[in-house]
Amino acid sequence: MTSVRSTIEAAQSVGRAALIGYLPAGYPSVDASIELVQCMVKAGVDVVEVGLPYSDPVMDGPTIQAAAEVALAGGIRTTDVFRVVGASAALAPTLVMTYWNPVERYGVGRFAAALADAGGAGLITPDLIPDEAGEWIGAADRHGLDRIFLVAPSSTRRRLEMTTAASTGFVYATSVMGVTGAREQISSAAPELVRRVKEVTDLPVGVGLGVSTRQQAAEVASFADAVIVGSALVRSIANEDAVSAAAGALAALVEDLALGVRGEVER
Amino acid sequence: MSFSAPDSMPDAAGHFGRFGGRFMPEALIAPLDELEQHWRKAMADDEFVTQFDALLREYAGLPSRLYEAERFSETVGARVLLKREDLNHTGAHKIRNVLGQALLTTRMGKQRVIAETGAGQHGVATATACAYFGLDCTVYMGEVDMVRQALNVARMRMLGAQVIPVTSGSRTLKDAINEALRDWVANVDDTHYLLGTAAGAHPFPAMVRDFTRGIGDEARTQTLELLGRLPDAALACVGGGSNAIGMFAGFLPDESVRLYGFEAAGDGYETGRHAATITAGQIGVLHGARSYLLQDEDGQTLESHSISAGLDYPGVGPEHAWLAETGRATYLPITDAQAMEAMALLAKTEGIIPAIESAHALAGLPGVVAELGGAPELVVCLSGRGDKDMDTAAKWFGLVDEADLVAEVKMK
Ligand SMILES: Cc1ncc(COP(=O)(O)O)c(C=O)c1O
Question: Is it the case that residue A168 has pLDDT exceeding 50?
Fold first, then answer.
């Protein structure tokens, strides 16, 4: 299986940014989320982020919060997330995006083993900073998993150095001071943050938070190695009742975003 | 009255043993560092200390009295000294923390304060401090709680605060904290998050402790004056843990003084409907720190239950988790029924109606007396007054059955 990093670098080598797509497991149901994640890959997503729904998602805006609530009300379990990962990993490198407590509760070593077994590539941890991640870093190394930490416009140079040194796969740059959710404009802080990250690491840099359109994807692709889209994808399926209709809407948006990361903007 | 410099706990990264720390989005780490620097500098600055002391004295009415409750003492077979935080401005210990943090906010040059509130007590205290300092105040409150505590919503609005209903998750306190954190990360440049208890990411647990430790420092001095010696034990109720840690901080080095925290056991901790986090929870991470919490097998936070809104929180501050693990403090569950009985007993024997939160500490007295033997001398934190709880008490005890009232009026 190709790694997350080599997938992003392969996109770079043909002169485009990689497209990373986020969907929560279990939304609107576990089986439907499997179908939707696979649909997203077929439509042009290079790397998949499977969200592990959590009761207290402090980094998420209303769209992803609502999806997590639906998934939890539907009875999703941590083990179901590994099933979604397995189905996705058959098609593309797949990461799990999770708040820390579900991992700690499952057992850090046990979680890493189960994720690796399912074919998962690693974890994105929005509320775990490297300072607190000793156990996870050890487990990730034992199981060959990527550990993707976040950096933010407020990160100091010292923290950028420390965080990128602890990261593998890519560095997740949150483009704004804020939570997930579509925004009308790409934050002006994003290019500056990417520049600062590039000063301290050779890892690819992915930019997330707020990208929802092809134009925005193209804009971010002009200064980042990967474009991360979440809330917009969730919103595209939230409006549809039938899974097939949701898949259609999702595929259409992903195809559009895939043009964006290739720098093809509408005139 | 004065308060001491920060204790050596936590360590530089905010850990109390294996508890505490910072489980927060990276975006908030620099702001938390900045807050910690400002706080440490302020605590070492005579001007800040003097200002804070003066505020507590002139505005909040502190130090609170240590009152020997003689008739109540007889009923429990101990000498009970009540730390009268119920007489503070706004009616609870919470004023100490909010004045400390609001003063710090002005020093940081920030104009806006946000806070979470469950029952509305911390929201009211925060709105009060913001009115005093002329700060812009926004309080997040679960939609469910806003309906349950409409009077406190009115108070906050009267004080000029904006109250924002939280409609996500369980629409209670924990979700209000989530929403406040979301606001903070987006507005941190001009906004201070005035967290209401000794929980959350470092430096909040240590900072809130140090702003509330006047409870214990005063109580220690007052006990020595009154008894000529230290008490046998200090007791407090534990929600997030601010009044308890404030009380305990004053006595931590005194090994002869036993420390007891009382958690809300709701219908009984064995029923699953409770908020007894240390008694019946497991170790995990919530709202920025590792501590005990109520969670399911997958680490999803469970809803807590207590008749006392101020104790109705599925987490607890990390220093309490550490004090429990090291055995320095003992944490015991008190049911709704036990707390309500103690509330009534204090009202009838002393003419003091305690907050239901504080009644949990009173209800713990018989157990402590049995454990210590003899007629021990005990300091209890009476963290707040019960006015806010009269609706709940009236329902619980059937004090104002409407049909009866109508009948009584007709008889006249
Ligand atoms: C009177 C009173 N006591 C205790 C508490 C519990 O909080 P803590 O554990 O932080 O002292 C509250 C919270 O609202 C309160 O109002």
Answer: yes
CATH number of the domain at A198, please.
Answer: 3.20.20.70
Closest CA to B129 of B167, B164, B156: B156
Q: What does pTM read for this prediction?
A: 0.96
| Tokens describing residue A30 | 């576990």
Please compute the mean of the pLDDT values over residues B239-266 and round it to a whole number.
98
Question: Quick check: is A60 catalytic?
Answer: yes
Whose CA is closest to B362, among B331, B327, B334? B334
Minimum CA distance residue for ligand 1 atom 1: B384
The predicted model gives B101-130 an average pLDDT of: 96
Sheet holding B15-16, edge to edge: B15-16, B19-20, B289-293, B282-286
Which tokens in the block code for residue A113? Answer: 């083993």
**Band (A188; pLDDT cuts 50, 70, 90):** confident
B13-58+92-207: CATH architecture? 3-Layer(aba) Sandwich (3.40)
- Please tell me the predicted confidence (pLDDT) of residue A239: 87
CA atoms of B219 and B66, how far apart (whole Å):
7
Number of domains in chain A: 1
User: Which residues of chain A does B24 touch, with a Cβ-Cβ cutoff of 8 Å?
Assistant: 127, 129
For the CA of B246, the closest atom of ligand 1 is 11
Residue B411 — pLDDT band, cuts 50, 70, 90?
confident
- Are the C-beta atoms of B83 and B62 separated by less than 8 Å? no
Flag if A103 and B299 touch (Cβ within 8 Å): yes
Q: Is A20's pLDDT higher than 80?
A: yes
Average pLDDT of chain A to the nearest whole number: 96
* B13-58+92-207 and B63-91+213-265+307-397 share one fold: yes
Interface of B with A (CB under 8 A): 13, 21-31, 168-169, 174-175, 178, 181-182, 185-186, 188-189, 282, 284-288, 295, 297-301
For residues B84-113, give the mean pLDDT: 97
Residues of B in contact with A72 (CB under 8 A): 300
Which of B141, B173, B243 maximizes ligand 1 atoms within 8 Å of its Cβ, making it the mutation to test the pocket? B243
Ligand 1 centroid, distance to B359 Cα (angstroms)? 11
> What is the side-by-side strand order in the sheet with B329-335?
B66-68, B79-84, B377-382, B233-237, B258-266, B329-335
> Position of tokens 């240390």?
B278
Measure Cα distances from B169 to A39, B164, B392 in Å. Answer: 29, 15, 25
The Cα–Cα gap between B264 and B390 comes to 19
DSSP state of B252: T
Say which CATH topology domain B63-91+213-265+307-397 has. Answer: Rossmann fold (3.40.50)
ipTM score of complex = 0.96
Task: Judge whether residue B2 has pLDDT over 50.
Answer: no
Query: How do the domains of chain B map onto residue ranges?
Result: 13-58+92-207, 63-91+213-265+307-397
**Out of B26, B168, B181, whose CB is closest to A152?**
B26
Assign B147 a pLDDT band (cuts: 50, 70, 90). confident
